[in-house]
Amino acid sequence: MSQPRRRVLLVGWDAADWKVIHPLMDAGQMPTLERLVSGGAMANLATLHPVLSPTLWTSIATGKRPFKHGIHGFTEPTPDGQGVQPITNLSRTSKALWNLLGQEGKRSVVVGWWPSHPAEPIHGVMVSNHFQRALGPPEVPWPPPPHSVHPAALTESLAALRINPNDLPADAISAFVPRAAEIDQQRDQRLGACAKTLAEAASVHSVATHLLASQEWDFAAIYYDAIDHFCHGFMKYHPPRQEHINQRDFELYGGVVNAAYRFHDMLLARLIEIAGPDTTVLLMSDHGFHPDHLRPRIIPAEPAGPAIEHRDFGVFVLNGPGIRSDALLHGLNLLDIAPTVLTLFGLPIGEDMDGSVAYDAWIEPPPITTIPTWEARHEVKPGGTMGLHPPERRLDAAESQAALQQMIELGYIEPLGDDQQLAVRRTVRELRYNLARAYMDDSRHAEAAAILTELFAEWPSEHRFGIQLAMCFRALDRITDLRAVTEDLATRRRAEAEAASAQLQQALLALRNDRREKLAAGESPPRLKPAARLGLRRLRSLARYSPAAIDYLRGYALAAEGKVEEAVRQLRSAESHPAAQAGLSLQIGQTYLQMRRTSEAWRCFRRAHRIDPDNAHALLGMAQCALRRGRTDRAIDDALESLARRYNNPLAHFTLARALARRGQPADAIEAAKRALEFNPNFAAAHTLLAHLLSETEEAAAADHRATADAIRAAKRSARLRRASSPEQAWQPPHAQPPAPLQARPHAAPPEPTSQDPPGTRMTHPPTEPITIVTGLPRSGTSMMMQMLAAAGLPAFVDGVRTQDEDNPHGYYEHEAIKRTARDPGWVHEAAGKVAKVVAPLLPHLPPNLPYRVILVERDLDEVLASQQKMLARQGATGAALTPDRLRAVFLAQLARTREWMAANAAESSLTISFFEAHTDPHATAARVAEFLGCAERAPIIAQAIDGRLHRNRADR
C-alpha cells in the first residue's frame, strides 16, 4: 500500500500579531485560528533587522540572512542603471524552498510571495506578487502584468479570478467601516485605500484556492500582505484611542484592524478545508505591529520610515500529523521556517542556512540530516526541475515603473522625482544601509562599519548612518572613533535642526500667504504636491532635535574612557529626556552595568520592561542585575524569559549558565555555556566559564577552552594596539565644511546632498594590480574570451556556482557577486590581478579610477538574439516581452554606454575583439589578445582555447 502524499501548506500573514489575535480568539471571533492553535504548537516568532518585508520573506523562504540571499530592500536599480524598479526575485542569490523541493520532484503552488516577480519557472505553479495589484476602474481593461504567472498558459484563466475594488459589494466595505455611507470620498481617500487592500487580498485568495483545488501539489506557500496594509493605514485609529487622534476618525475607522483579522480567519478556514486533514499547516508572520501604547505618534521622514510601526515578534502556528497539541514553543525566529519545512519533507538542511528546526513541535522528534549547501547541489530527480531564472533574465522597464506606485503610496519609498540618477543613488544608498543593518543584526559589526563609513561620508545629513556607525564603533571597542563620530553628530545635528526650524517657519508662512491670496481672489488653494509634502515632513523631522541619543553615546564613550562622573551626568541627561523610550533605556542600562552601578542599571531595565514586557533585552538586563545582587533564582527566571523571546542571544545563554552554576547545576550550566558558544564562538568569557565547569571532569577540554579564551583576549589586545599605533585609520568626519543649507519651497522638495561618486564605490585602499574585465552582451562570446585568458595564465575571478551545460560546455566563468554590481561593487578589490566577466549592462556600475584592462567582445546582433532565444527555449523561459527590433535597440544602447565607460575609464588599456574574426582567424585574434596582455609567447596556447564548434548561431546561415 502506497504511503499517503505528504503535503505542507505555508500561509503568510504579513504583520500579524498575537497582541491583536489573542483578544479576538478569546471573544470567539477567530474560530479557525483557535482550532489551529489548540490542535498544534504556537510561538512568538522573532523577526530580523532591518524589519523590511521583502528581506524578511526571502529569509523565510531561504533560511538565510539578507547578506546571503541578496534581497536588501523594496527597490533596486534597473539593470542598465538608468532608473529604479521594485525589488525582484532576480536579485535573489540563494535557492528558495520551492527550488529545493522542485529538485526533489515535489510540486509547489506559490501565490503572492514577496518578492516573487517575475514568476519563476518552478515545478508547479507560481503567481507573482504583482498579479493581484488593482489598476483603474472596472470598465477599463485590466491585463495581467507580463511574466506574473508560471506556466504562462494559466495567465488568462487566473486573471479572470481577480477582483477590482470597484466591484466590491457595499456590505463588504461596511464590514470594515460600518458608517462608510457618511464619508465624503472626494475629500477622504481612506475608504478607497481600504477597498483596494480588501480587493487585492480577495484576489490572492481566489487564485490560491483555485490552484489548491485544481493542481497537484506537495508544498503551497500563500502570502497575504493585507494585514500589514490595513495596519499601516488604520492601526492609528485602533482602540484605545490615542489622544492625538480625531474622535470622528476613531469612530469611523476604529474597527478596521479587527475586521481585517476576522476576514483572514475566514480565508484560512477555506484554505485548510481544501488542503485536507492530512496536510501540515504552518501559519506565520514576518513581524508584528504595535497595537497599543507603543504605537509611534510620528513616522520618521526617511525611506522605509513606516517600518517603525512594526513589532519584533510575529506569529507561528504548526498543526498537522505528528505535531504536538496545545504546545507553546520558545526561541523561534524567521530563519527556522525553511529548515522546519525541509524536515517536514524528510529532506536535509543546508549547513549554510542560518536557522534551526522547530524540534520541540514534534511528538516524536524526527531525524535531522544536513548537507554542506543546497546551492552546489545541481542534480534533479526525474520529473522535477530546479525552477530558477536564467542569469540573463531581466524585468521589463514599463511594468517596473507601474509596480513602483504601490510602495510609494504606502510610504515605503520616496517619490522618485524627475532626477532619475538621484533616485538611483538614493536606492543604492538604502540597499547598502539595509545590508549594513543586516550585518549588525548578526553581530558582524566590522562589515557594517565599513559600509556605514562610506554612506555617512557620502550622505552626512543622514544622521541615522552616523548613529548606526557609532553603535558599530561601540561594539568594536573603537572608543576614540565613537567619541569622534558622536561629537560630529552632535555639532551637525544641532546646526541642521536650527536651520531646518527657520526654513520650516518660512515655508509654512509662504503656504499661509499663498492660501490667503487664493481665497481673496475667489480661487481654490492648490493642493500640495507629494514632493512638497515630503519636503515639509523632512524639515519637521530635522527641526525636532532630540539630544537623548547623543547624550547616551557621549556617556558610553566617557564610561569606556574611565571618566565615570562625566559619564553618569550624560547618561542621566539622556534618561530624563522625554524621547528616552525602551531602546534607549536599554542602552543606558547596559552602560551603567558596565560601570558596575547595578541600581541605576536595574532602574533602566525595569523601565524598558514596563514599556514593553516582551522586550528580550530588558529581561536579560534584569537577569544580569539579579545575578549581581545574588538573586540567583530570579536571574534564571529572567534569563529563561529572555531566551523564550530571542533564543539566538549568546549573552543570554551565558548569563543563564552563570546563574545555573551558582545554583549548583553544573551539567545544565555546561549546556547553556556551550549554547552561548554556538552563537558566538569568540565569546572569551564563555570559554573561561566552560573551562572552570569542566576542570574536574574533562581536563583536556577545559585546557582547550582556557587556551581559546586567552587567544581571543590576546587578539583583541593586539587589535587595540594596532589601532592606537595607526592613527591614519582613525575615523574622520564626512566633511570639513559646515552642513549645506537646506531649502524648502512650498511646492517642491528640498534637494538631497550630492557627491561625485555614488555611495559604496569609494575604496580605502584601491587595488594596485590591474583588474582585467571581459565584457559584452550576454551570448556574445564573453565565456570564450574568459577561456582564452585562462589559457594565457590569468587567474579567473569565479566561484563555480554556475557550472557548464549545453549552452556553455566549457563553463561560464562567472561569480555571483558580480551580478550584484549595480548595488554592491565591493567585489572589485578582490579581483585585483585576476580576470572577471562583467556583462555590458553592469559595466557602468564599476567604481571609476581603478587600474582596469577591458576586453569588449562584439558579435553580430542577430546571432546574439538567436543564441539567447535558443538558450531561453532550452531552459523553458520566455525572456523579455519585447519585439526583436525593440530588443536590438536596447542592446545597441547598452553597447554605446559600454564604449562610453571604456573611453572614460580604460581609454589606454582596452581592446575590442570580434567574435566572428575569432572563429575565422583564431591565430590573429590570439596574437592581438596576447600582445594586449603582454604575453606574446602564449599566443598559440590562447588560439587553441577558441572552439570553432561553438559558433552555432551564425547570421549567414
Tell me what you see in this structure.
The protein has 35 helices and 20 strands. A hairpin with a 6-residue loop joins strand 3 (75-77) and strand 4 (84-86). It folds into 3 domains: 8-405, 3-Layer(aba) Sandwich (Alkaline Phosphatase, subunit A), CATH 3.40.720; 613-733, Tetratricopeptide repeat domain (Serine Threonine Protein Phosphatase 5, Tetratricopeptide repeat); 771-950, Rossmann fold (3-Layer(aba) Sandwich), CATH 3.40.50.300. Residues 736-766 have low confidence and may be disordered. The strands form 5 sheets. Strands 1, 2, 5, 6, 7, 8, 9, 12, 13 and 14 form a 10-stranded mixed sheet that branches. Strands 18-17-19-20 form a 4-stranded parallel sheet, with helices on both faces. A two-stranded antiparallel ribbon has the order 3-4. The chain is of the alpha/beta class. It is globular. The longest helix is centred in the middle third of the chain and has 42 residues, at 479-520.
Can you lay out the helices and strands and say which pair or pack?
Layout: E1 8-13, H1 18-26, H2 31-38, E2 41-46, H3 53-62, H4 66-69, E3 75-77, E4 84-86, H5 97-103, E5 108-111, E6 124-127, E7 149-150, H6 155-159, H7 170-174, H8 190-214, E8 219-224, H9 226-234, H10 247-253, H11 256-275, E9 280-284, E10 288-289, E11 310-311, E12 313-319, E13 327-328, E14 332-333, H12 337-344, E15 349-350, E16 370-371, H13 397-410, H14 420-441, H15 445-458, H16 463-475, H17 479-520, H18 530-543, H19 548-560, H20 564-576, H21 582-594, H22 598-611, H23 616-628, H24 632-645, H25 650-662, H26 666-679, H27 684-694, H28 699-725, E17 771-775, H29 782-791, H30 816-819, E18 835-837, E19 852-858, H31 861-874, H32 884-905, E20 910-914, H33 915-920, H34 922-933, H35 939-944
Parallel strand pairs: 1-8, 1-9, 2-13, 2-14, 5-6, 5-8, 15-16, 17-18, 17-19, 19-20
Antiparallel strand pairs: 2-12, 3-4, 6-7, 9-12, 10-11
